[in-house]
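Hey,

Quick one before I head out. I ran the complex with nicotinamide-adenine-dinucleotide overnight. Inputs first:
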Amino acid sequence: MSEHKNHAYWSERARQVDFPADAIINGAPTGSVSGRRFDCLSPVDGSPLCQVSRCNHDDVDLAVTAARTAFDSGTWSSASPQHRKRVLLKFADLVERNAEDLALMETLDMGKPISDSVTEDVPATVNCLAWHAEAIDKVYGEVAATGQDELGMISREPLGVVAAIVPWNYPMLMAAWKLGPALATGNSVILKPSEKSPLTAIRLGQLALEAGLPPGVLNVLPGFGHEAGEPLAADMDVDGLVFTGSTAVARHLLSVGAMTNMKRCFMECGGKSPNLVFADAPDLQEAANASAAAIFSNQGEVCTAASRLLVHESIQDEFLEAVVAAAARWQPGHPLDPQTSLGAMVDETQAERVLDYIEEGSRAGARLRCGGSRAEVVDNGWYIEPTVFDGVSPDMSIAREEIFGPVLSCMSFSSDDEAVQLANDTDYGLAAGLWTRDLSRAHQVARRLRAGSVWVNYYDGGDMTAPFGGYKQSGNGRDKSLHALEKYTELKATWINLG
Ligand code: NAD
């Protein structure tokens, strides 16, 4: 980020942002049928940003009808892949051109540091949309191995109407992970952002229309889970439900999908990811810095956050000291200051939840090595110090439950077997990290970890080329890469009698 883009610059720019507040149904901005709106508050300082359409089942009905009509019309679903590619590339380009506004909306709406929004969220969103756009005219069907008298063609077809329900921790990027493959494959989509962070999703909807997406192909319904999400999940005319959010809500939605029209349901959920540091880690200082970043970035509100640190007992004291020293460099700051690396918690409810876990950890006997309290950064904002516990035992709630905040739980192990056993001792299976210079150990341990992503000698790497998703209760299906297309398409076998 250039030097003149300092705190004062972003504060001034924030005053100029035009916050999008209307739902988008059938290509038009709209209030909700009920006329109700909800306050969109900034966690930076508790100030109101705008009042957003509060959608419910009536708006869901309209959006599903619009999406179905658009799908059946074929304007998008039957358009050539080259056409879809062009429109989606333009969409990606418009996101890039609006980068500063989108980054500001993201930061003001959910509290993440502006430097993250600018350097990570927006570029990753652009890349995701462009990647799927570029991919879609390079995906071929198959021809079955048959005798001379018949021809078997295997093709992918769009599901139809897809509901995408997304969370608040990466509002724009999680929306893009759904929109990229869903739109590229020709579906019509109804996007429901979290009530805690609806702004960038609405802006994405506007930009998609500007790029040339036909009306009804992308509808955006801001609103609460029980009011807008639930009727979407239960709708008999929705063909697919893709979700990113908590495991508890995902479980419920799977049952709703099963009890209604058996819509295709794909869930990307929470995690309690382990980060294993062996005594032969290539660079302990680097591993300590990365271990801190892996839990404190995005305020710990990251599905893959390495919230459990497992350290070999022979290096435990030295390593934990280095982690605590690294944690000190993650002090909360004003999210609009580009120097800030730890921003505001998304809201009071989430902050209170994190503070409750911290209290419970101390009560259960874990040792607080640093942090543990609310930080006073901006009046009426919610900030929490980077917090490290050691002496954690595997049965404590801080070792088992997803806290979704800047709280690290440290344990030790004495052998590779124990490390793997502790790492896998969780209901989740989203990600894991391990640090060793021994190639055989790296491969062997990586194979034994029950997680959808494993990083060796770094954490949270990767790009659009590899699938992302979880084992166990971290979800099913995969986002990113060509594997994501599997969630948004049906496979059709067409047989022709040549005899
Ligand atoms: P959440 O489950 O509370 O909400 C997610 C979305 O579901 C929101 O849009 C919400 O309004 C909606 N919702 C809530 N109740 C609903 C209901 N009854 N019916 C329909 N929709 C409903 O999750 P959150 O707090 O927004 O997000 C944090 C969670 O997301 C964490 O568990 C995190 O690990 C997970 N997450 C997972 C990934 C991944 O890729 N695996 C990525 C980011 C976040």
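The pocket of nicotinamide-adenine-dinucleotide is lined by residues 165-170, 174, 192, 194-195, 224-226, 229-230, 233, 244-246, 249, 252-253, 268-271, 303, 402, 404, 430, 470, 475 (CB under 6 Å).

Talk tomorrow,
K.
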